[in-house]
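Pilot study result, target chain (166 residues):
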Amino acid sequence: MVEDVIQKYAENNFPLDTVYLDIPYMNNFEDFTVNTTAFPSLKDLSAALHAKNQSIVVIIDAAVSAEQTDNKYYKLGDDMGVYIKSSISTSADYKDNLISSVWPKKAVFIDWFNANSSNFWSTGLSDLYELVSYDGLWIDMNEPTTFSTGEIVNATMKPTTTPTLE
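Predicted structure:
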């Protein structure tokens, strides 16, 4: 689909310097991942763009998916202790990390004052770069923004709203 749009630009002699990819390129809205079903060849796409002196920018969210506590990046950040902690008790599964909802239904937020946060972030971005050789990042939801009214106190609670992409 993205390739079709790029092709139409070329066919109509429209200038195209940069392609921006919004969150559907991610696997289940999880940072540092690619939905390889919907986007099976992003690495090839970025190489093709680079060959034509064009760029690709991918979106990334400040919130990290906590939908699955065994998710690679949730676990890495939890092991490194980089998430903002809750002021109230949460499920033992979440080890007192503040849980709320953004694009992933359950999400945690990086404490950027934590000494390990830069290492966590650079690890994820390096992994993402292996999947798609991006030229820039579109940092979305770059503050602890939530689609809920406050935190999800219990891991079994549902967010108050669930946005949809149209």
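One observation from the pilot: The mean pLDDT is 86. A full batch analysis is planned for the follow-on phase.
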